[in-house]
Design a protein that fits this description.
alpha/beta, Alpha/beta knot, Trp Operon Repressor, Chain A, five-stranded parallel beta sheet, 8 helices, 9 strands, binds S-adenosyl-L-homocysteine
Length: 233
């Protein structure tokens, strides 16, 4: 079985979107990963097929109904492999990071619920043991862009998707550090030279230089990562 995402959204036409291009798109076509998309509206009942309603207690906006979302989630769960997590994208959730992405890539797949309006009725999150994850401390208009971001990050880790596996080992966060700076041709550009050591052909010196650059950059730009790393190593 290949890693499979099942997206629940009111805008199913947004998928695969940008993931239909480049290596992810090729991987999808070749069956290196799977994508199912369901329209939440298909689970709405009644003449008006309402998916949302006004919030109890008053206030602005609309809330997605639990009696529409639950059957959508249950249908996805029934078709999914055992152990498939249900994720809801939400600014209240745990911020996604590379550790979360790696763990998810090792699982059979994920069911991803994309919210709209003010969000979803709290009870459905409790009743279906839904995990909330956030793209960051800002508000999107819907969960779809967060789903695309998470999918992109997971899919590139899957076997048969990324051409150069080595590049996965060296990039930012692989060892809790930001990546060192890159340079390519030409060796002098607008009067700026590439650091001498990179042209030396001395692999050990290059490795040391890159490691030092990674550490300096992380200390300077992401004190939070640096402090966490010191605790973990
Ligand atoms: N009223 C909510 C925001 C709703 S935004 C609040 O103040 O917290 C509408 C939908 O967009 C949400 O249901 C969620 O699914 C999605 N969304 C918005 N911001 C997000 C973020 N930072 N990460 C993940 N999903 C987000």
């Amino acid at each position: 079985m290949v890693w499979t995402a099942h997206i629940l959204s009111l805008f199913p036409e947004m998928f695969p979107g940008p993931l239909g291009s480049s290596l992810a798109g090729k991987g999808l076509e070749e069956g290196a990963w799977g994508l199912k998309v369901s329209d939440i509206r298909d689970f709405a009942k009644g003449r008006h097929r309402a998916v949302d309603d006004s919030p109890f207690g008053g206030g602005a906006g609309m809330v997605m109904r639990p009696d529409v979302l639950a059957p959508a989630i249950d249908t996805a769960l029934a078709a999914a492999e055992e152990g498939t997590r249900v994720i809801y994208f939400s600014p209240r959730g745990r911020a996604m990071d590379q550790a979360f992405v790696r763990k998810l890539a090792d699982e059979p797949g994920a069911i991803m619920v994309c919210g709209r309006f003010e969000g979803v009725d709290e009870r459905v999150l409790e009743a279906r043991n839904v995990e909330e994850v956030s793209l960051g401390d800002f508000i999107l208009s819907g969960g779809e862009v967060a789903a695309l971001a998470l999918l992109d990050a997971v899919v590139r880790l899957l076997p048969g998707v990324t051409g150069n596996r080595e590049s996965l080992e060296e990039e930012s966060f692989a060892d809790g550090l930001l990546e060192y700076p890159h340079y390519t041709r030409p060796p002098v550009w607008e009067g700026r030279s590439v650091p001498e050591v990179l042209l030396s052909g001395h692999h050990e010196k290059i490795r040391e230089w890159r490691q030092r650059q990674s550490e300096e950059l992380t200390k300077e730009r992401r004190r939070d990562l640096w402090d966490r790393r010191k605790r973990n190593f």
